Amino acid sequence: PDISNQIISSIPEATPEYTKTLIKIKRALGDNDGAMETAIAALEEKPDHGVMFAILRLSWDLGSMEDVVIYSEKILSDKPTQPVAHRFRLRALVKIGDVKRIETAISDTLNYLPDFIEAHRVMIDIGFHEFEDWTMVKNHCESILHIDPTDRRSLCHLIHSQLKLGNFGEVADLITKSTN
């Protein structure tokens, strides 16, 4: 606590750095409620992405996935191409498990960031495990392979989906491609 007081007293109070550091100190000392109160108060005073990210991360660490989604969406409403906010939102929604909300978020993410591989991967997982929609799996695998032709995971999922679709000729070509 003495060191943390020295650190915080060395930073001018009216700066975003002060707030972010105070939040980090409170978290490090195990005062998560105090950290959240500090962050929310700072956010009410002045909306700042740094503070929003601090709240988002704290919410994640505390397991408050709905809050992660809320703060991610606040950031995305201002900066729709912010990849970290998209990633946190998608991961939180996956933990929540609401497939419709996940699909909507992925559609939104891919609208702004068409090369965002993580969104395609989530859709592949949903296609596999929720819907057994092999065409969906195939399409998202192909999207990833268009971005990264060497992505082995997508290639394996593509082979699997082609088998399920009965496209055995495609499977042979993909296996040949995967061994080169």
Fold and architecture overview:
By secondary structure, the protein is mostly helical. The chain is 81% helix and 0% strand. The chain has helices at 2-9, 16-28, 32-45, 49-62, 65-78, 83-96, 99-112, 117-131, 134-147, 152-165, 168-178. α5 (65-78) runs antiparallel to α6. The longest helix is centred in the C-terminal third of the chain and has 15 residues, at 117-131. The mean pLDDT is 90.
Give the class from helix and strand content and strand pairing: mainly alpha
Low-confidence stretches: none
Write down the overall mean pLDDT: 90
Succession of helices and strands: HHHHHHHHHHH
**Number of helix segments?**
11
Largest sheet: none
SSE diagram, text form:
Layout lengths: L1 H8 L6 H13 L3 H14 L3 H14 L2 H14 L4 H14 L2 H14 L4 H15 L2 H14 L4 H14 L2 H11 L2
Helix pairs in contact: 2-3, 2-4, 3-4, 4-5, 5-6, 6-7, 7-8, 8-9, 9-10, 10-11
Please outline what is shown here.
The protein has 180 residues and is mainly alpha-helical. 81% of the residues lie in helices and 0% in strands.
Please give a handful of descriptors for the protein shown.
81% helix; 11 helices; 180 residues; mainly alpha
